[in-house]
């Protein structure tokens, strides 16, 4: 406060007016402050009410979020349990699949090894098949040759049968000739009788020599007398004996022809037997390799032994 002795006011009335004016200013300031306080209080109450409303809303939302959080935590726990269970199942499935993969791999290796063995076996079988086919072709060729030879032998067998019939007829005629010769020799003179006896002895000796002569596979030259077949020989013999009785030399010649025919028949029999033995031995040798399914041993023997017409 200012010292009254040094007061700036000139008089007390000026001082009073000054203080009145100052108090008026402060009073206006107080009134404006009160007004502002009242407005502030009203605004604060409104703001407080709004904050309380927001707080309630936030508490409600917080409760909802807490409930949602609890629910989500429960779901998370449930999902974790499911994931753990699925992980365990996945591990078990992975272990089972790994074991199955090992088994499949081992099986595949075994199958590949088996396939290689089968391929090798197949190659061996192919080679054996080719060898068997070649053996079969060779066997079929030999068989065809044997069949052709058999047909040729069958034709020779038929010829042999016809020759046997001709020989039998010639034997009968030779017997008749001997009887006729004996009758004629009884009627001739003693010299002619003696000469005829000698010739008959030579004729018997020639017949026995022709019968005991060994057979050879070569064809005899018994048909060099002008008769190529037994029928032609018989016709020549009948033509020679129909006009006049045969001389002793002609009879000896006829008997020699008979002996040559017998020799030819024996040679044919020997040749047929040797060919049959050869074909049978060949069939036995080839039967162990690869016999054809259409020709067995019994059929082959029947074809060799049975009568067949000659094939052209």
Automatic annotation (TrEMBL):
<dbReference type="GO" id="GO:0051301">
    <property type="term" value="P:cell division"/>
</dbReference>
<dbReference type="GO" id="GO:0005871">
    <property type="term" value="C:kinesin complex"/>
</dbReference>
<dbReference type="GO" id="GO:0051298">
    <property type="term" value="P:centrosome duplication"/>
</dbReference>
<keyword id="KW-0131">Cell cycle</keyword>
<dbReference type="GO" id="GO:0008017">
    <property type="term" value="F:microtubule binding"/>
</dbReference>
<dbReference type="GO" id="GO:0007059">
    <property type="term" value="P:chromosome segregation"/>
</dbReference>
<dbReference type="GO" id="GO:0000776">
    <property type="term" value="C:kinetochore"/>
</dbReference>
<keyword id="KW-0158">Chromosome</keyword>
<keyword id="KW-0968">Cytoplasmic vesicle</keyword>
<keyword id="KW-0498">Mitosis</keyword>
<dbReference type="GO" id="GO:0032154">
    <property type="term" value="C:cleavage furrow"/>
</dbReference>
<dbReference type="GO" id="GO:0007405">
    <property type="term" value="P:neuroblast proliferation"/>
</dbReference>
<keyword id="KW-0963">Cytoplasm</keyword>
<dbReference type="Pfam" id="PF04880">
    <property type="entry name" value="NUDE_C"/>
</dbReference>
<dbReference type="InterPro" id="IPR006964">
    <property type="entry name" value="NUDE_dom"/>
</dbReference>
<keyword id="KW-0175">Coiled coil</keyword>
<keyword id="KW-0132">Cell division</keyword>
<dbReference type="InterPro" id="IPR033494">
    <property type="entry name" value="NUDE"/>
</dbReference>
<dbReference type="GO" id="GO:0001764">
    <property type="term" value="P:neuron migration"/>
</dbReference>
<feature type="region of interest" description="Disordered">
    <location>
        <begin position="203"/>
        <end position="225"/>
    </location>
</feature>
<dbReference type="GO" id="GO:0051642">
    <property type="term" value="P:centrosome localization"/>
</dbReference>
<feature type="compositionally biased region" description="Polar residues">
    <location>
        <begin position="205"/>
        <end position="215"/>
    </location>
</feature>
<dbReference type="GO" id="GO:0047496">
    <property type="term" value="P:vesicle transport along microtubule"/>
</dbReference>
<feature type="domain" description="NUDE">
    <location>
        <begin position="135"/>
        <end position="288"/>
    </location>
</feature>
<feature type="coiled-coil region">
    <location>
        <begin position="30"/>
        <end position="187"/>
    </location>
</feature>
<dbReference type="GO" id="GO:0042802">
    <property type="term" value="F:identical protein binding"/>
</dbReference>
<keyword id="KW-0472">Membrane</keyword>
<dbReference type="GO" id="GO:0045202">
    <property type="term" value="C:synapse"/>
</dbReference>
<dbReference type="GO" id="GO:0007020">
    <property type="term" value="P:microtubule nucleation"/>
</dbReference>
<keyword id="KW-0493">Microtubule</keyword>
<dbReference type="GO" id="GO:0031616">
    <property type="term" value="C:spindle pole centrosome"/>
</dbReference>
<comment type="similarity">
    <text>Belongs to the nudE family.</text>
</comment>
<protein>
    <submittedName>
        <fullName>NudE neurodevelopment protein 1</fullName>
    </submittedName>
</protein>
<dbReference type="GO" id="GO:0021987">
    <property type="term" value="P:cerebral cortex development"/>
</dbReference>
<dbReference type="GO" id="GO:0005874">
    <property type="term" value="C:microtubule"/>
</dbReference>
<keyword id="KW-0995">Kinetochore</keyword>
<keyword id="KW-0597">Phosphoprotein</keyword>
<dbReference type="GO" id="GO:0000132">
    <property type="term" value="P:establishment of mitotic spindle orientation"/>
</dbReference>
<feature type="region of interest" description="Disordered">
    <location>
        <begin position="289"/>
        <end position="312"/>
    </location>
</feature>
<dbReference type="GO" id="GO:0007100">
    <property type="term" value="P:mitotic centrosome separation"/>
</dbReference>
<keyword id="KW-0137">Centromere</keyword>
<keyword id="KW-0206">Cytoskeleton</keyword>
